[in-house]
Amino acid sequence: MIPPMTTATMILALVVVVALAFDFTNGFHDTGNAMAASIATGALSPKGAVTLAAILNLVGAVLSVEVALTVSNAVVNIQDSKGLPKAELMANGGTMLLLIVFGGLVGGIIWNLFTWLLGLPSSSSHALLGGLVGGTIGALGFAGVKWAGDGSKIDGVIGKVILPSLISPVIAMIVAATATRLIFMITARVEDKFREGRFRWGQVGAASLVSLAHGTNDAQKTMGVITLALVAGGSVSATAVYVPLWVKLSAALAIALGTYLGGWRIIRTMGKGLVDISSPQGLAADASSATVILASSQLGFALSTTHVATGSIMGVGIGKKGASVRWSVAGRMVAAWAITFPAAAVMGAVMYWIAAGIGGIVGPLVVFLLLVGLSFYMWKRSRVNAVDHKNVTDEWHDGSKPEVAVAAHDVIDPHHELDAPQPAGPAAH
Fold it and tell me: Which CA distances in Å does 184 have to 153, 309, 355?
């Protein structure tokens, strides 16, 4: 006889489903981080690129789980130093902790889908951490958030979110611009057709490294969140915490499947909207992204792959003489970066309040249905001007001018089709 499910168990089941849904959105939202440049230059076909990225995301996701159990520890006070949930959150089958995680995940998914609809590459990591911060504020108030750590190291929201988001794209931009200048200086006497062909092979290798690093980094976050929920719900021992094999495999498969579907709208913005790049520039962008991401991992710094990859693409535009960056597009992207964390936090807090305010299993179910409804609406909106593997490399025409500053409504207006394919003609600069 199967024992009856408690409210906490049903909430736990919803948390697991929503966590895997977030991992799925992370996959297709961040595909452009590694593959946009390779697709834009023709180094890889669109379908070939997302297939390769999906495989490498899958491999990367199962390679390491070293930080999975402490993924949220840097920004919120819901775990101890060992990754165990705090005792005060474990009452009633860990319902409060489960609702914090649930609200945070829903907030992160909504923001990921919204920025995908606009074709804006924002950080999925920031969306997740912002959602968790919001859920924590909803439950515990502002005291539940680690704003600056304990002073012994760079930590908290400032150290793990704000500072990296300011520094990492600048570093990536400088590295990519320098690499681009060196490449064109060294190959100045080489004919364009030979230069383009040879550099495409290098692009594939560099883009593969970025995909592998993305899988290793981002899938762990979901594994950690699911494991934390399992401990709260009593499904994993609180004395010997580990990441169950099914959690590793399901998170890896979810991010790989999302990657395979391709975040075409974001790939288009990064590959065609920022800079019209050649193969040498593509190699410089991908190699710079891989270098910065892997170096930061060795030094223990948590960087957004989105911010790094975007900074690299802007850098190759700056680094090539005669090339140009569409700064109006870049402005919209930076604005999206700036509001990702607080926007996801607000959504996470609201979703927690709805779920906890209604109470029982009804509250989380209402939030889940809201998520399904909003997701369907944004998917339907995306079909109005669909972007897929067939038109992702079409010429960019949005009327953008480098000297025009971004307006706030350009970032938040879903009717502004940032990455919509347009009739053929000269690219806007």
Answer: 41, 21, 56
